[in-house]
């Protein structure tokens, strides 16, 4: 199959991580374009999409009042940032877990406590994983949780939450409240509510991100696919991972502005010369961090 594939474009954080691993070890079989790290994907789909779909999924699944609840968001990357914003906006008292000191400092400067799950798992009402890693919320955490604590994942596969470990506990009872909402009753009588069986709750318990923010991601995908096809015989792309250039990122953003009624300020030639850019863009260097 590989010999017939011109290239691939990938828009998930986890998928891109795997592509870079393959490129490093020489197992990547064709060129790949990393769409996830386009600004108009990761800073929009990941942040604003999750900011919308996390509370949507929680409320459709449980009808719980979020205001006043103690919520922990595991991971403060782009997905975690959107999730924390949503919970804070709904009136929750939000804390974050992190391994990265930069992300942890960002969380603190946004007003979130940075904690470890081991320290707070017996006090929280909702915990959401958004790490892209495995073994985040373990059976030992859920054994200590308050009655009816809500556990969900929005970051990765179902291995962020140790569902198998909970099911293996002697005397555990699993009750389906409704499809995609299960309550695990522990031998001591307390229960934990698991959303979407540990899979992505915004898809399992709701309908995912709204079409507008996904349009931004899919526009990047379309541009990447066209680029790979149009350059299929040029030798431009080797068996490596590439990102779309800045001017295409800006193009994706431009294509969406009219729908929101935006009117951009124009940069004069003199102003452009003063800051060393083209008046039509791109306006930021490739290493600019939005």
Architecture overview:
It is a single chain. With 290 residues, the chain is of the alpha/beta class. The protein folds into two domains: 8-39 and 213-275, Adenosylhomocysteinase-like (Rossmann fold, 3-Layer(aba) Sandwich); 42-205, Rossmann fold (3-Layer(aba) Sandwich). It is built from twelve helices and eleven strands. The strands form two sheets. Strands 5-4-3-6-7-10-9-8 form an eight-stranded mixed β-sheet. It has a three-stranded parallel β-sheet with strand order 1-2-11, sandwiched between helices. Helix 5 (101-109) links the parallel strand 4 and strand 5. Helix 3 (45-62) packs across helix 4 and helix 10 packs antiparallel against helix 11. It is globular, with a radius of gyration of 22 Å. 38% of the residues are buried. InterPro entries: Adenosylhomocyst_ase-like_sf, Adenosylhomocysteinase-like, Ado_hCys_hydrolase_NAD-bd, NAD(P)-bd_dom_sf, S-Ado-L-homoCys_hydrolase_CS. It is an enzyme of class 3 (hydrolase).
């Amino acid at each position: 199959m590989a010999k017939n594939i011109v290239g691939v474009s990938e828009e998930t954080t986890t998928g891109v991580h795997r592509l870079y691993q393959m490129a490093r070890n020489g197992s990547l079989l064709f060129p790949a374009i990393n769409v996830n790290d386009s600004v108009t994907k990761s800073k929009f789909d990941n942040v604003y999409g999750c900011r919308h779909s996390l509370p949507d999924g929680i409320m459709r699944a449980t009808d719980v009042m979020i205001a006043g609840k103690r919520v922990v968001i595991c991971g403060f990357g782009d997905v975690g940032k959107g999730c924390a914003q949503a919970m804070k906006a709904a009136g929750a008292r939000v804390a974050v877990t992190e391994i990265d000191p930069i992300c942890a400092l960002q969380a603190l400067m946004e007003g979130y406590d940075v904690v470890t799950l081991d320290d707070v798992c017996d006090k929280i009402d909702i915990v959401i994983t958004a790490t892209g890693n495995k073994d985040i919320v373990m059976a030992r955490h859920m054994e200590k949780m308050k009655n009816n604590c809500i556990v969900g994942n929005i970051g990765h596969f179902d291995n962020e939450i140790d569902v198998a470990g909970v099911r293996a506990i002697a005397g555990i009872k699993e009750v389906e409240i409704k499809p995609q909402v299960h309550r695990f009753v522990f031998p001591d009588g307390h229960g934990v509510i698991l959303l979407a069986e540990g899979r992505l709750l915004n898809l399992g318990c709701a309908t995912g991100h709204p079409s507008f923010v996904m349009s931004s991601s899919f526009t990047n995908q379309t541009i990447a696919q066209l680029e790979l096809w149009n350059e299929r015989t040029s030798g431009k792309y080797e068996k490596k991972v590439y990102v779309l250039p800045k001017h295409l990122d800006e193009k994706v953003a431009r294509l969406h502005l009219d729908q929101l009624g935006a009117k951009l300020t124009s940069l004069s030639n003199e102003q452009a010369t003063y800051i060393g850019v083209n008046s039509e863009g791109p306006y930021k260097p490739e290493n600019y961090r939005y």
